[in-house]
Amino acid sequence: MKFSLSKEDIGITVSKEVDFSEWYTQVVLKAKLADYAPVKGLIVLRPDGYSIWESLRSTFDEKFSKNGIRNGFLPILIPESLLGKEKKHFAGFNPEVFWVTHSGENEVGDRLALRPTSETLAYTMYSKWIQSWRDLPLKINFWNTALRAEIKATKPFLRTSEFLWQEGHTVHAVQEEAEKEVMKILEIYKKTVEDELAIPVITGKKSEKEKFVGAVYTTTMESIMPDGKALQMGTSHFLGQNFSIPFEVKFADKDNVEQFAWQTSWGVSWRLIGAMIMVHGDDKGLVLPPKVAPIQVVIVPIYKSDDAKNIVFPKLNEIKEQLETTKIRVHVDDRNELTPGYKFNDWELKGVPLRIEIGPKDIEKQQIVLAKRYNREKINLGFNEIERIGMILEEIQKDMLKNAKAKAAENTIDIGDYSEFKSKIGKVDFLTHIGVEKLDVRKRSKKRQVQTFE
């Protein structure tokens, strides 16, 4: 029995410019980054999607380690009585909390929350572990999931009821050291997102209204998306002593006088993957920056007979081995049942940064054809120039950031006060917040975003 797939089954059927939301969903699903789970609001991460997350995790771990931060693990269940210790913080999350009320058929008594965030649990443990100034600073990062009962429309990677993230929690003896930690982490986030995902970001402080519940202040990393909306990409919070006092996170100083500690918390989630999709993707599908691409180079052999295949594959395998010795992630598409044209479209949909095309005629000319995914440029490369592919991938990475910065600049206006805002924008369609001491303005329109941060 034969069957065929239509364009609706395998290709992107809407334009990014025409229906951004539908385009995004199709890219996530058809590029096989994730799929919807049987439970509403949850998604299943597929291998390519998880590989991108692992790449980011590896980079963050390396940078965290250099900053004296180690990884730990926290359980997912938090007793309601424990959450009540910091009522203001908990009240902010209460509408979003999933509750466990039974263990088997028996009621658990004190309800258990499925972790929306881990401050209360972490600081209960920190109060046991910290006794003296010698125990500080304490810097631990946790790679885990958080669960929040989203009542708004969900979107893969951007807003789901369960999501992968990292949350760091540090404790310090003095306020100044804690505040420096807040900014160090924000800079790590900024550099990683720009260097790895090729996404330009703006960093600054959240308004008092938008800060993290329980924080003294919140610093944020945000970027403008192609639909003209700002996306929060990560946050780093100065908690002051707002948690150390109710949770008794305290220490004996060098004079043996008991002091309450100063704390920070910070995190990014797989929302970074969603931002990458939106910023770089096109009507063909996903466009991956080389640094995080699960496959950096795909080799597509071109042949019409077994004799041609026998000519192509020895050279193809030689090129593959040469690239792998330089740590380039390579895949050979040897699916016999598919045409080269189908394969080209398939790998463009999946966003692989570089495609190598090689057939008998190319071997005669002692060359390969390189196709760049991000701008679809094709170049011929001699067999004696294969080592240049690593440099070409680096150039692609830099060019993608450069192009993203240019697009962000087109949709951004820098303003200093509300009067200037009114003169630049005119009629405001959508205004989320105007602070008194700072301006944090977002104007939602088809192609324009105005935003400033101190």
From TrEMBL:
InterPro entries: aa-tRNA-synt_IIb (IPR002314), aa-tRNA-synth_II (IPR006195), aa-tRNA-synth_II/BPL/LPL (IPR045864), Anticodon-bd (IPR004154), Anticodon-bd_dom_sf (IPR036621), Pro-tRNA-ligase_IIa (IPR002316), Pro-tRNA-ligase_IIa_arc-type (IPR004499), ProRS_core_arch_euk (IPR033721). Keywords: Aminoacyl-tRNA synthetase, ATP-binding, Cytoplasm, Ligase, Nucleotide-binding, Protein biosynthesis. It comes from the Archaea. Its main location: cytoplasm. Gene3D superfamilies: Anticodon-binding domain, Bira Bifunctional Protein, Domain 2. It catalyses: tRNA(Pro) + L-proline + ATP = L-prolyl-tRNA(Pro) + AMP + diphosphate. It is found in: Cytoplasm. One of its GO terms (biological process) is prolyl-tRNA aminoacylation. GO terms for cellular component: aminoacyl-tRNA synthetase multienzyme complex; cytoplasm. Residues 9-289 form the Aminoacyl-transfer RNA synthetases class-II family profile domain. Signal peptide: none annotated. Its EC number is 6.1.1.15. One of its GO terms (molecular function) is ATP binding. Transmembrane segments: none annotated. Catalyzes the attachment of proline to tRNA(Pro) in a two-step reaction: proline is first activated by ATP to form Pro-AMP and then transferred to the acceptor end of tRNA(Pro). HAMAP family: Pro_tRNA_synth_type3. Belongs to the class-II aminoacyl-tRNA synthetase family. ProS type 3 subfamily. Consists of three domains: the N-terminal catalytic domain, the anticodon-binding domain and the C-terminal extension. NCBIfam families: proS_fam_I. Homodimer. This is Proline--tRNA ligase. The gene is proS.
